[in-house]
Amino acid sequence: MTRAMIFASGLPLTFWGDAAEYSTYIMNRSPTNLNPKRASPLEVLTNKSPDLRNIVVFGSHCTVYRDPSKNTFARRAQVGTIVGCSDETKGFRVFIRKENKVITTQHVKNIETLSEAQNRQLQLALDDDGRADSDEGTETPVRQSSSITASEKPKKKKQWTRQPHVTRVKVILALASTWGVPTKHGDVSNAYVKAKKEQHLEILMHVPKGMTIDTRKLKELGATKIEDVVLELKKSLYGL
């Protein structure tokens, strides 16, 4: 699929990485006979049907909105080439030839491989996703009467959540599939990290390279050389 994408799009071979990533993106969301009920790999993993509305032909030309900043007469739309979809943020990865860089944006219109009706449908889907994102963590508007009134600014509660990087998750899943190891999601509480080692658990380790042990200490342990000695773990090595 990657080879077909590159040659059909007419893009240089420097975009083979984008084509490989996009083909993986599509295959993870495509039905396959290897899974029960021809479910896609992503559906098996999440138990949800993946959204396929944002899948378009690799290398499709489109117009992208660009912020003109303070330049009033600057172009607000530029021609770009779609080279994939982003997993980290919602939107397309678009190559802007004039700027010679790849950006991620939802402000994509006039995709040449889609009809006018399909372009409108895609734009509605992107707008819905954008509104869904903006609804999270926004301030509640204060309804005012026709006269001007003063009201206290709503307090916004900040919430921080640590999210794993999508690329790291992909690597973990790929290694687990290669080694035939089942993967499970879990969390470690901060209290466990600071807890003492279990009494019944005995953890031994080889003497690290460069560490020296006094000759008298070796004799007390009944050893003649450092290779005959092991170290017992007393405290947690979390983070090392």
TrEMBL record:
Residues 154-163 have a biased composition (Basic residues). Signal peptide: none annotated. InterPro entries: Retrotran_Ty1/copia-like, SH3_retrovirus. Pfam families: SH3_retrovirus. Transmembrane segments: none annotated. Residues 141-150 have a biased composition (Polar residues). Residues 129-163 are annotated as: Disordered. PANTHER family: TRANSPOSASE, PUTATIVE-RELATED, TRANSPOSON-ENCODED PROTEIN WITH RIBONUCLEASE H-LIKE AND RETROVIRUS ZINC FINGER-LIKE DOMAINS. This is Retroviral polymerase SH3-like domain-containing protein. It comes from Hyaloperonospora brassicae.
